Amino acid sequence: MSAAADAQPDMERAEVRDVVAWTRLLADPGDASAVVRALARPPIELRQVDIARVIQIARRRKLEMVAALACAIESPQVPPEARARIQRFLELHRAATAALDAARPDLLARAALGAERDQPPRGGAGLAARPDGPDEEALRDMQRIVREEVLADVTRIGARLSELRLDTDLDISHGVARYLELLKLSALSQRPAEQSIHDALADVNARLLAAATALQREILQSSPLDGTLSAASGGGIPAQAGHDEAATGGSRAGRSGAGTYDERAARVQALSPRGEPSLVPFLPRKGGGLALSASDIETYRSCPLRYKFARVLRIPTEPTVGQRFGIVVHQVLERYHAAGGETLSQLLDLFESCWRRGGFRDSDAERELRGKARVALERYHARLHRQDSEPVWFERQFSLRIGPHHLRGRVDRVDRLPPGDLGRDGGIAGVSASAGVGVAGADRTGEVERYELIDYKTSRPKTAEQLRDDIQLSLYALAARESWQLQAASRAYYYVLDDLVVRLPGDTDEERVRETVLAVGEGIMGQRFQPTPSKSACAICDFRIVCPAAER
Ligand code: SF4
């Protein structure tokens, strides 16, 4: 690797991402994801429930996050301890802004990371002598994380000692327990070369527990750390006395699929804040269940943590160019059909006015996108006039219940298919003349009426095979039957930019849709928000700067 590449900051390191987050929020106080990261990380460490409250204030009062924080310290909804942390953030923010004005990047970084956060040397004496393996690397990672927490605890708990509080002993015990965990990790890192983590841990645990008070023992025994260590070392680590799986959060959390160690999940588990209050008040509840949409379900399935950021904490995000473009295309088509549009020039005029209002600028990329959209709309218009099916509903809304959950949404377009049409655009996969064909009643000639549900997409097309597990259109088909008493014969995605229709194969598997909705609902109600990072999900995720699974 070149020296230049060596000099690149390691974007996966938490400290580097902290500086990036602070730099971003100083440049743009409305960058909610960056502010949330700065609030969640040392030296602030605001609890998630308090972050959710601040976001709620920002949304209700239409404020940028930093301005909302200034309001939050006046709000009776925000507890005194959280106010103190917010105050600390605002002080750091002021210091960092001043450093920025003085063009002192070194001061900026110090302010952004908290002046008291001295960087400890990486690795201990024992680590240097031990050859690197996955266990040692995971141990080193955990040691670094816990060391940061201990340092942050010193400041936080120290500040609280001067307050008149009833829970001071609990604070101190938590701080000491965390320090004992750091000792545990250090002892394991420096164990004799021939000893496994498994063999060393029981002995280290016994010694630490013997030195701890009853309260500290209780905290240590309910810590998820041993579960994480178990995952890191391939399992089999004996639980501490009274240390059951429920208390540890389950040693499964650090494992994936066939029992392999999932390093990132384990890190996230080790990082999970202790004693976080429930986020239940922020879940999108409706009646005894949840209010859900097809996109909520897809988001949770692609990554539960992403769902939490987007729908529970509701971190505001700026729509990307691609998202704004998608909105414009949907608006144009909806308005064109709603106005009974006929001609191509009507369609293109509508596009031009929606484009202007869409906040697009005149960059090369945006000009290119505009050109592509015009060509795509010309092709849409030509297709519309040569097809035999008849568009009958646009943006048609539905709502239905599945178990305790309420599902709402709207279908972009519903076409009435011509009689006997089974093969347009390369064939309507999964539709046959006798089975799977929808019946909404018969028309005056006695012909069976059959419909196609269409969802517009402006993303890159997927093949029918890639859409095998798709839920969105299957949910729409179920909703069409239950809400509109219309049995869909066919479900299709129309990729507008590519003028491509991809029809889903097979009949709607209603049982699969119901099971998926119920499983997702159970996960959300149970607040199971473990990240499931993947290249495809993370690449389009708005919350990468906040996400602990994206760092080490
Ligand atoms: S960055 Fe990846 S792992 Fe993190 S929340 Fe987003 S999708 Fe999930």
In total, how many beta strands?
A: 9
Helix content: 40-55%
Biggest sheet features: 7 strands, mixed
Strand content: 5-15%
Structural class: alpha+beta
What report would you give on this structure?
With 552 residues, the chain is of the alpha+beta class. Among the domains are: 141-146 and 163-271, no CATH class; 390-526, no CATH class. The protein is 52% helix and 10% strand. The chain has 23 helices and nine strands. The strands form two sheets. Strands 3, 4, 5, 6, 7, 8 and 9 form a seven-stranded mixed sheet that branches. Strands 1-2 form a two-stranded antiparallel sheet. A hairpin with a 2-residue loop joins β5 (390-402) and β6. The longest helix is centred in the N-terminal third of the chain and has 28 residues, at 134-161. The protein is elongated. The model is unreliable at 1-5, 115-129, 236-263, 266-274 and 422-444 (pLDDT under 50). Iron/sulfur cluster is lined by residues 303, 305-306, 531, 533, 537-538, 541, 543-544, 547, 549-550. Iron/sulfur cluster (SF4) binds next to α17 and α23.
